[in-house]
Amino acid sequence: MSSHPCLRCGACCAFFRVAFHWSETDACAGGLTPQGLTEPLDPHRVVMRGTYGGTAVRCEQLRGQIGRDAHCGIYALRPSPCHALQPAWEQGAPSPQCDKARVAHGLAPLTPADWPAGAGAA
């Protein structure tokens, strides 16, 4: 079992809208994210199901319990916004997005001490 903090968290997956260009879906040559897991946002973008809005944002691909054992059900096929959101201090820098999502779910922001020695990039 990994000690990577993201495998306990999942807050970002239950806080942010995950919008991206439709060409990242498997409906387009070279796209990876399954189109069936998205819904239209506008003529050029789609969103991951469950993240479009309302009061209960939670990506349908988030598995497990936030803050305990959360993980992505399609990690290898996740879209660019998921790749782009960096966990705080994983690369030695803060991440206001990570902090904001964690705080919204009652979790403390990550610190450099949350990273196992030698963990580096996940």
TrEMBL record:
Domain of life (superkingdom): Bacteria
Lineage: Bacteria, Pseudomonadati, Pseudomonadota, Gammaproteobacteria, Lysobacterales
Name the UniProt record assigns to this protein: YkgJ family cysteine cluster protein
Organism this protein belongs to: Lysobacter firmicutimachus
InterPro entries in the record: Puta_zinc/iron-chelating_dom
